[in-house]
Specification:
The chain is an all-alpha fold and about 80 residues long. The protein has 4 helices and no strands. The longest helix has 16 residues. The chain is globular and about 35 Å long. The model has no long low-confidence stretch (mean pLDDT about 90).
Length: about 80
């Protein structure tokens, strides 16, 4: 059995990632997207949050927005 990883507000890390992806793809309120990604980032998972953003971009948005790569790299 693997260890449960918690965020700063005691959410399960994997569930935060899934909630972020879900809110982004279902086009929920942008504040909800900000909350989930900031929960991941501010909990100390800085590298993982950027990896998650790249994963989402290449899996769901790259085909329609190939020039957005340079914008993400600048940020």
């Amino acid at each position: 059995m693997s260890k449960v990883i918690l965020t700063r507000y005691l959410y399960i890390y994997d569930e935060c990632c899934l909630a972020f992806i879900n809110s982004l793809l279902k086009k929920h309120d942008v504040e909800e997207c900000y909350f989930w990604i900031s929960e991941i980032y501010l909990s100390g998972f800085k590298i993982q949050s950027w990896q998650l953003l790249w994963f989402i971009y290449f899996d769901f948005y790259f085909i329609n927005n190939p020039s957005f790569t340079s914008f993400i790299e600048k940020k």
